[in-house]
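Journal club prep — side note

Before the paper discussion, L.F. wants everyone to see what a predicted structure for a comparable chain looks like in token form. Sequence:
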Amino acid sequence: MTTPANYNASSIQILEGLEAVRRRPGMYVGGTDQKALHHLIYEVVDNSIDEALAGVCNKIDVTIHPDSAISVEDNGRGIPVEIHPEKKISALQVVMTVLHAGGKFGGGGYKVSGGLHGVGVSAVNALSEWCEVEVTKSGLVHSQRYERGIPMNEVHVIGKAKPEAHGTKTTFKFDPTIFKESPEYRFETLVQRFREMAFVTRGVTINLVDLRVDRAMTFYFEGGIRSFVRYLNKNRENLHPVMYAEKQIESIGVEVSIQYTNAFSESVFSFANTINTIDGGTHMTGLRTAVTRVINDYARKNGLIKDAESNFTGDDTREGMTAIVSIKHPDPQFESQTKVKLMNPEVQTIVTQVVSESFGIFLEENPQAAKAIIQKCLTSSRARDAARKARDLVIRKSALESLTLPGKLADCSDRDSSKTELYIVEGDSAGGSAKQGRDRHFQAILPLRGKILNTERARLDKILGNNEVKSLISALGMGIGNNMDISGLRYSRIIIMTDADVDGSHIRTLLLTFFFRHMPSLIDQGHLYIAQPPLYRLEHKKQARYLYSDQEKDAAILDLGKDSEKASLQRYKGLGEMNPDQLWETTMNPVNRTLLQVSVEDAAEAERTFDILMGDEVAPRKKFITTHAKKVRNLDI
């Protein structure tokens, strides 16, 4: 290895101002992709939410302009514009251009805040092509403009306002030289985020307007997280009314809401200072610990568990539980700038105390609800014991034995799991083509015979009795449930490849439901994909083209003009209609193929959507289908 010749003091670079943010955007907003683009909006809105938490703001307007510029306006106190005593420039300019500057560190400006790293709005400014801020206070409107984080003028007065008017309006346009893939803001993604914010910030109105397509939504929930639980359980059979508690201990506010349903999975979400901590943390641990302890104590005290029986496990007590825990902390410690996990150790003790007291009182005061919950836990415990035995049987089968299962696995020769991929294929016909067309070195094929079980409506013990599920678990090699270990995964890519018809879509949905409910780490760690086979084959003058959408087909025929009459068009109804060479060329060759990576942007909304589409209730499913029918891309009639 060669060493650079001159490594001395001159080699040490100092990045002045916001240049560090522009050089390493991933450290501040998580990257330069679509997710990071939305993070820019969240950072600005978080500042307005902090004003709401301080009790000085009840309205936030977010506007997407036709050129994809974003405006965020609130009726908070307005960023201070006076001269900063140390920097000798306007406090507004300090906030917008200096990292780790803000009113959230000294304890005077905000008791509770989500944006405690102090890099939020200044990082957004640094990553914007331009940014303009207007501050209204004391009867005047102040303004300053920045380009790529650099002030273009001094903070100056641009107009007068009513004496009682106050607030901040920030308008920015992301820098295309940073976000080079030209990602677009998704209205649906913002809807999900702002709905959650409105749920956990009771009494605040959030207006979202998209001027690109003339869409708008308003969010306001007087019931707070109680309304959130009702929203999540709208299409489930509830076992009791929503339990809600709110308490403040040692300057830390705790809100919790719990309701059990007839579902087989848990829906638990945690928030810290209105931020959705998707990886949980100490508040989530406190909630789960308390629920399990309270249910066991109540069941033993009232003779609902016999002395010889063992206590319920956490899995038993969480089946069918929908819960929200939201904490307000003056000094939250997050795992990273993207704030996905809360780390404060004292929070666990406080949340455990609050939930133990409130949930214990709820069970005592509502014996019918308590009995229904404990009956649910008993059924879950027995089913989990049966599932454990079934799972052990499945796991004990070696990969070699799984070859004898109905869905026959055609494995690949390479044993390096980082290079291999498994195609889950619908039916023997497509499986035969895929086996012949694949690259045997790194591509394995698992044909499924028929449709797998709808795992949204079944417990794990029943799921593990399904032959197609058994062969799938054996092929993946990582187990399932509590014994799942993703390090045992035998393939780096799991690719669902089904026909482009109604049956194929149904099988794909059933598989996605199974992975979402029982192997979520596959999705979280980016291992799950959906293949995109062509819909058409257009042949003209012995030259064949594969077309992947109706739009591509229409454009190709239009290009041929009068010659289109001499062309032959084949519509592929199933993968089995393609010969092995065609399947390889269009759908399996890494050079040519298109794969869609499966991800979950918003777990709460995904929970609700799976519940609507795959649950027991027919009416919500019918309403969902009729509402979204016009947005469907591929529909076979």
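L.F.'s comment for the group: Residues 225-384 form a domain with the Ribosomal Protein S5; domain 2 fold (CATH 3.30.230.10). Keep this in mind when we get to the figures.
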